[in-house]
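Service request form, structural biology core

Requester: graduate student, group of Dr. S.
Request type: structure prediction, single chain
Budget code: on file
Notes: please return the result as structure tokens.

Sequence provided:
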Amino acid sequence: MATSQPNPSITPREILSAWGKILGGKAPMLSIEITRECPLSCPGCYAYGEGHLGGGKLLTELNDFRGDALVDGVLGLVRKNKPMHVSLVGGEPLVRHRELSAILPALSALDIFSLVVSSGVIPIPLEWMDLPRVRVAISVDGLPEHHDIRRKPATYERILKNIAGRTVNIHWVITRPMLERPGYLEEYVAFWNARTEVDRIWVSLYTPQIDEESPEKLTPEDRQEVARVLPPLAKKYSKFLMSEGIARAFLHPPENPADCLFAKMSANYSADLLTRVEPCVFGGSPNCSECGCAASSGLHWIRSVKVAGPLRVGHFVGGSVGVGSLVNRLRGRGDRPSRWDSNDPRTGKKPGLVQIAT
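Core staff response, request fulfilled:
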């Protein structure tokens, strides 16, 4: 799973627009798992585990859509939620590249920013590059020594072939094995910064589920090291998005979904376009105290930005969520996100990690 890109230079107009969405009981950001299908078998992918969707549902068991039904269904969710930004994920969303070639122009025409998050295992349609407000992010989990084993068949060789002549963002999830060799982090940034196809590189830290113990999980000391090393790399490599503020947010993530600005501002749907992914895009029971999500960290930092006098972004969003919840109740809507409540009923569930066979 991947998440939409944080905006480190959010403007007052964008903040006000987001507040307006929340006040109306809407989510400014929308994420849709447009397919249950994926040709990869990444170890530790809990998107297909028992806890991802809750209620005993599995992603592989959902009825997903194709053709006009998928196009109409996605655009229907957009009309319902009226988001500012839409992330299209999976599974592997490029399995539905024909449908996306209809969805993306429609979103662009509506002045909605959209992000397709892919493994790069399938060629990116060249015509997407000419669409305003459309971005494609490729998930690259480390250098080839780690990525090619984990993400096969979406190897470095295949990714470079499939992004040739395109413009993409690179999304990098840092796991513990990457910190075992000195210089690894800079080597990764330097490689992708030098690629002409790459517009931006953005980074997340591996986010475990509650009670998870795995080789990917970072220790507190690992997080300290990452927060120390990454900001100087952003000054050296122009395409790498990182700031001191976001690095600090990696060290002090939200305590729970109710404290997470990204969770409050997003609505997430799975492949049947009905099932909600809660409490955030990870689903299941993410360990918020060890969250490393780029979008969550970016917005967690932004919430501390002063807007007027002593008032910060977080004060306005908190009030807006309260009003938005009241609006939903008055309208009789039963689809209020659970993370808008102070206590997420799903906290404490312990989904197992799985490996999906091809």
